[in-house]
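The authors assume throughout that readers already know how a fold can be written as discrete tokens. In essence, backbone conformation is discretised, so a fold becomes a row of integers matching the chain in length. A single example would do more here than another paragraph of explanation. For illustration, here is how one protein appears when written out as sequence plus structure tokens:

…
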Amino acid sequence: MAAALLLSLAAAGPPAGAKPAAGSLQQDFTAAASEYGVPESVLLAVSYLQSRWDGHGGAPSVTGGYGPMHLTDAATALAEAPHHSHGAEDARGDNSRPHQAHRAEREAVKAPDASALPPRLRTLARAAALTGTPSERLRTSPAANIRGGAALLADAQRRLGQDPSTDPADWYGAVARFSGADDTATATAYADDVYEVIRSGQRRTTDTGDRVVLLADAALRPDRATAARLGLRTVDAGLTECPPTVACEWIPAPYEEFGEGDYGNHDKADRPASQSIDYIVIHDTEASWDTTLRLVQDPTYVSWQYSLRSSDGHIAQHLRLRDVGWHAGNWFVNAKSVGLEHEGFLVSPDAWYTEAMYRSSARLVRYLAQRYGIPLDRQHIIGHDNVPGTVPSTVPGMHTDPGPYWDWAHYFALLGRPFIPSAGPGSAVVTIRPDYVAHQPPYTSCAKPGDSCVPHGSGAVRLHTGPDASAPLVKDIGLRPGGEASTTGVNDTGARASTGQRYAVAERRGDWTAIWYLGQKAWFHNPSRQPTAVGAWASMVTPREGLAEVPVYGRAYPEASAYPAGVPVQAVTPLPYRLLAGQRYVAGERTAGEYYYAPVYDTSGHTVVRGKEVYHEIQFGHRVAFVKAADVRVLTR
């Protein structure tokens, strides 16, 4: 397969000696590489790791990077960036311990101070000085941006005392410096990724329609010794639990008691011996990197296992995996999951993440999934926006990150589990899979309430009450108990199905497909010439014979008789939805009812309660939910 891929990449490239078309992005790389004496393959690979060669229309990334080379000007880009996502949930999500008003939640998160920004967030200014190009042009012109990136690489090579070279192997140290990382592990992990891109080759049509090709150089072996001259710090790996292919630093979250029976910011546990870990929850931070680290080290705030930096993919681990973080707003999910926070802002006008972070995150998730036997699918690798509310009153306040701009299709391709058809076009189940770049449904309320968001690729499809784009959007009675219609708001998940999620087909009419969703038929545009879903196979559940409807739950708690003396019984409260007779929903994790009792700082009274009641996780709406196995029958066709 690898040989076939290399041959196909070679076949896709220009003939030997051929010049790229004038005015093309490929020509911009060729010209910049020639001007600054940088091997073109190095320039292409660095840009691919930063942006996958996309320009994003001159809009900044979540860390203030512009253009194909991700030249950073965070002071400009983030000055007006939003800093809070929608949601007012109790991140712990357990009513056995009253929600505390965390001090950090009441503090305003400030935009970064330009004078205090690290060099990795100010590379555009240096590129401007090296090239003599105005900063505004570096932000908005792909050709100028690429030229600025080439100048930075050449400058890094010169500062290392290295002569310009036509051999890509001689540029390892310069590539490591280009990452902007301040530690050796992250800089070298970044450079290793760049050279892997060169070895494997890449080809892609960018967001401007340009076809860019990097031919594979499978035999390339860089001179890694040059990175030793960078003089970077050595990170404290401490108690980190990470794969060797990423750079991981131990920055612990505090387990601390601070008076009046309150403590933070996580719970001690003994997973997986005490409880299995079944889910990985993907978040975005809604804050800059420095603010994220400050918050997670505050005992009055909340916690998660890992933070990932967008500019270079650096990872900080805060909790041992055996312990329980407060991150998902649902105690059942918290107790059985690992939380990954990715630096970024859901509603940034043109939210985009670097390829470096996507790759680092995917490697971490693969490692965690293998360690704990977690299936690599969208009912186990979930967004914070897929976590269900615990009871009816918490549904409207659940968080909505990472939102419709997270590229689930690309992420799962990096995980080695791309969303490919597993059944024919008339299948009983579909996997949502629009073309991320071309699929740009309108969203509102990114910068200001009601305002239109900047057009952007999205992995989410919009759901209507009928097979027509003018039909109203389906309603979510959990989000809006009064029956108000769903909206196109970027934080409104009431009529949204996301890439990788699987749903049972209810009906098909021409270019439209209906799925069962929140107890109703929900239609989305799915034309055969440009499908937004593909056929899939999956087990489904439906109410057992004789039941007109069955309740749906936001957590899989045990029956009352399972609780020992001294442990308060947790109510098994249905959500305001019903699974009706004749409807089908894709089944995920099958689990016995379980509750981790940990309401106080002293761990001696903590216990795991397990019951005999068994639940099925289902893909019920945009969020997952749970139904009792006794209420449903499983369909395997």
The two ends are 31 Å apart (CA to CA). The first strand starts at residue 65 and ends at 66. Residues 1-18, 103-109 have pLDDT under 50 and may be disordered. Residues 91 and 336 are 14 Å apart (CA to CA).
